């Protein structure tokens, strides 16, 4: 690979990269030579790519077909011998990629070889493989941290360290986290280092441009393992100052630099940004990123859960209209979050609905921990961080319905599960399931028996995979069968339409806040999606959907709907995927 290929890739990206770099670093009087050194490092990393990976970089990107994925926790990933069995189930379902979470950065040759072996095993089964990468900090036992503790000043400057105890304590008053003691004293070197309240990682100081270069080198090192996607976690913590702000303006530029580095060094690797910011800030992240970069659409997930709890879709519609992600960005749609859900909804939209934001956050927390009146959910919350935990099926009410032997409520609970899964699959982008979602896994309290996990509520929503339970997907009367087979049909229908993601989405007004309805146009194809977020039948005027002389076909059941009908009824938690087929007479 010659220098010409790097320059060819760089030419359309350099201006945006340089602008982003100096928006971040110009206040710190960083010179042009520092940016040139960064490009030289990326040039070297590209040349170090293996011949196999270079060929993949020149080919068609695996994510162009927008396959569905599933998130698996790295520590719970089966051994190489067991991967084949798990892969058979996921392949049967229609999953195309696995996203491994909480992957420790492989510093040693042994850890690198172990990760490489797992990646190769999933590749052998025909799956693309993604890993996550915490770009905001490192573990306390990281080689950089160990060198800092030994007194290496260059390594100490990579972290946000403060020698003044008063300044460290003052910062806690302005921290956006509810936990206290975000600065941790390092007795050995008489410094305070900022620790992420959730991960306990030491925060890196991106005000030092050498940090950006060093972390990008690690990013490229992960790409060299043959991964197909790298999820940049903890974006919100990449920049900190002594004031509260949901997403500092430097973060979108830093994310853009990582995404552009991926386009230069390893274009076959999908770069995924993961932020817990609200819809407006996610929109800014998407606008700064280069084409074909992915964003985890946390806002859409939160809006789905909010609509279920309130039986009201108005806030959801507002975000889809005013804060839609850049169409050149790939939106990844999860239904749950493996780190727990923070209720970072659109505050302005909530206030327009007459909801006090803090009161509404408390309502959602109470609802999804089963404490609010009318709640069907089972879950837990962390009073310190405000995060809520629970599996999709438990939050939808499956566990409570089965415990109480209520078949009617179990039916509604299954419909809620499928409604949210149908929503994530219907949206443009790539759906991402959580481990166990495909089988209706319930909250797993067995983590409390493990001293190493008992204080970590995240394990509540990380159920242990049991083969006997997975086999229930073949038993027609089981919950596993109902959810797995329904999800399988949805994934098959989605894959049958190569233009599924194409076209602009348009929210349709049905004068019914219980319904979420939108259309998507692509060439001669028009898709309509209707979702009823209540346990009551709802009605939609057909004149708001298509013309009287047109006919639509429901893609999941084959049911036909004529425009001559005045209204269209949706049962409790029912959703419809429709394709408009034109004039009725011409079809007949």
Automatic annotation (TrEMBL):
Protein's name according to its UniProt entry: Uncharacterized protein
InterPro entries linked: GH, Glyco_hydro_b, O16G_dom_2
């Amino acid at each position: 690979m010659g220098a010409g290929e790097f320059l060819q890739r760089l030419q359309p990206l350099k201006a945006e990269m340089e602008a982003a770099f100096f928006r971040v670093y110009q206040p710190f009087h960083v010179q042009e030579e520092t940016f040139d050194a960064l490009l030289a490092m990326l040039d070297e990393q590209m040349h170090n790519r293996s011949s196999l990976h270079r060929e993949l970089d020149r080919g068609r990107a695996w994510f162009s077909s927008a396959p569905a994925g599933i998130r698996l926790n790295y520590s719970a990933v089966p051994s190489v011998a067991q991967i084949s069995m798990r892969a058979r189930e996921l392949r049967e379902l229609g999953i195309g990629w696995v996203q491994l979470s909480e992957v420790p950065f492989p510093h040693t040759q042994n850890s690198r070889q172990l990760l490489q072996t797992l990646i190769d095993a999933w590749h052998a089964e025909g799956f693309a493989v993604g890993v996550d990468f915490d770009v905001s900090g490192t573990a306390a036992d990281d080689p950089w941290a160990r060198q800092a503790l030994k007194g290496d000043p260059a390594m100490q400057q990579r972290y946000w360290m403060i020698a003044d105890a008063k300044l460290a304590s003052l910062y806690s008053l302005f921290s956006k986290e509810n936990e206290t003691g975000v600065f941790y004293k390092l007795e050995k070197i008489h410094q305070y280092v900022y620790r992420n309240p959730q991960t306990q990682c030491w925060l890196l100081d991106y005000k030092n441009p050498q940090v950006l270069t060093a972390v990008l080198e690690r990013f490229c090192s992960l790409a060299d393992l043959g991964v197909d996607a790298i999820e940049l976690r903890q974006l919100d913590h990449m920049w900190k100052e002594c004031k509260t702000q949901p997403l500092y303006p430097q973060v979108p530029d830093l994310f853009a630099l990582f995404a552009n580095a991926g386009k230069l060094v390893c274009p076959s690797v999908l770069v995924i940004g993961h932020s817990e910011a609200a819809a407006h800030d996610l929109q800014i992240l998407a606008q700064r990123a280069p084409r074909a970069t992915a964003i985890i659409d946390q806002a859409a997930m939160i809006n789905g859960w909010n609509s279920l709890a309130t039986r009201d879709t108005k806030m959801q519609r507002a975000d889809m209209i005013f804060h839609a992600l850049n169409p050149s960005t790939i939106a990844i749609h999860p239904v749950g979050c493996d780190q727990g859900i923070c209720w970072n909804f659109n505050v302005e939209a909530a206030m327009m609905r007459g909801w006090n934001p803090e009161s509404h956050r408390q309502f959602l927390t109470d609802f999804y921990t089963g404490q609010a009146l009318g709640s069907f959910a089972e879950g837990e919350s962390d009073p310190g961080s405000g995060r809520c935990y629970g599996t999709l099926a438990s939050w939808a009410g499956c566990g409570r319905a089965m415990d109480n032997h209520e078949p009617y409520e179990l039916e509604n609970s299954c419909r809620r599960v499928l409604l949210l899964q149908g929503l994530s699959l219907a949206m443009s982008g790539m759906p991402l399931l959580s481990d166990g979602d495909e089988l209706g896994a319930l909250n797993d309290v067995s983590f409390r028996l493990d001293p190493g996990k008992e204080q970590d509520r995240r394990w509540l929503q990380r159920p242990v995979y049991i083969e006997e339970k997975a086999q229930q997907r073949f038993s027609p009367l089981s919950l596993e069968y109902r959810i797995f087979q329904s999800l399988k049909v949805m994934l098959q229908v989605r894959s049958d339409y190569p233009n599924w993601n194409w076209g602009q989405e348009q929210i349709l007004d049905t004068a019914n806040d219980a319904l979420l309805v939108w259309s998507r146009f692509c060439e001669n194809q028009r898709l309509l999606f209707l979702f009823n977020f209540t346990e009551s039948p709802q009605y939609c005027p057909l004149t708001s959907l298509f013309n009287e002389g047109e006919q639509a076909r429901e893609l999941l059941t084959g049911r036909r709907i004529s425009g001559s009908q005045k209204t269209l009824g949706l049962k409790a938690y029912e959703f419809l995927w429709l394709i408009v087929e034109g004039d009725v007479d011409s079809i007949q």
